[in-house]
Design brief:
By secondary structure, the chain is of the alpha+beta class. The protein has seven helices and 13 strands. The protein has helices at residues 14-18, 25-28, 70-78, 126-130, 134-138, 145-158, 163-177; strands spanning 3-13, 45-49, 58-62, 80-88, 105-107, 110-117, 182-188, 193-197, 203-207, 211-215, 226-227, 232-236, 241-245. It is globular. Pathway: Amino-acid biosynthesis; ergothioneine biosynthesis.
Length: 251
């Protein structure tokens, strides 16, 4: 599994959300408190953020562990944004994709992350991949399960689905094709956040006057953190959060 976080709200330094909190994403890379699968998130990391006046986010991604990159902590100290999505990737089997497999994935205004694993990869979801247009399949950034899940979500977004609907329908399709998959998805366009809780933890924190954070686990012990029930869709703005149950697909 991985750990990820998204934020929308007033301008904040990346480090205030990712580095400085006592249990922030930096610390979660080696000492997550609620991670159910895997122990060390050292196979890459990334952060995407939005600059004022530009709807297309910037990304900083690397193939190694975040704690080994002092340039990231220096960048996070000074870069400010009203919205971000960041992730650390669980140690997994060796592969050739490098930082291309590290979230966030991006297209246009969108940033995306997948916390989980597709069961029986890749055979289980081969029919879903085959249904994608060839150009979209050939445009995959990496050959991992997260990159394919992102391609399925992005296809729905391009077809006009709302973000929450695109995530929910993708989760149900993948869960039907590959039962037992863990599919915590996180998506933002810099204005709102959509996420699913499907097989692992998901929490949110809304602070009046500041904004909303959605994360795999709390980055501090603020009692206002709320846990999202499993099998649920979350949609959030900087002031409001809505959760909706997702039904398990029929066998």
């Amino acid at each position: 599994m991985c750990r990820h976080i998204a934020y929308v709200g007033r301008p904040s330094a990346l480090g205030d959300l990712l580095v400085r909190p006592p249990h922030g994403l930096l610390r979660q890379s080696w000492a997550p408190r609620r991670q159910r699968h895997g122990t060390v998130n050292a196979d890459g990391f990334g952060v995407g953020w939005y600059a004022e006046g530009d709807p297309v986010p910037a990304r900083y991604r690397r193939a190694g562990p975040v704690w080994a990159d002092p340039s990231f902590t220096d960048l996070a100290r000074v870069v400010r944004s009203e919205a971000l999505l960041a992730a650390v990737r669980d140690a997994t089997e060796a592969g050739a994709d490098g930082e291309a497999a590290a979230a966030p994935f991006a297209a246009g205004p969108w940033l995306f992350s997948h916390n989980g694993a597709v069961r029986d990869w890749p055979a289980g979801v081969a029919p879903l991949a085959a249904a994608l247009p060839a150009a979209e399949l050939l445009s995959l950034e990496a050959r991992c399960d997260s990159a394919l899940v992102w391609a399925l979500v992005l296809h729905r977004l391009r077809e006009g689905d709302e973000p929450g609907q695109a995530l929910a329908d993708t989760v149900l399709d993948v869960a039907r094709a590959a039962p037992g998959s863990r599919l915590n998805l996180l998506l933002t366009d810099g204005v709102a956040i959509a996420a699913t809780a499907w097989g692992d933890t998901l929490c949110y924190l809304t602070v009046p006057g500041r904004g909303t954070v959605v994360a795999s686990e709390p980055y501090d012990d603020d009692p206002r953190w709320c846990e999202v029930p499993d099998r649920a869709l979350l949609t959030a703005t900087r002031t409001d959060v809505l959760t909706t149950p997702l039904k398990e697909p029929p066998a």
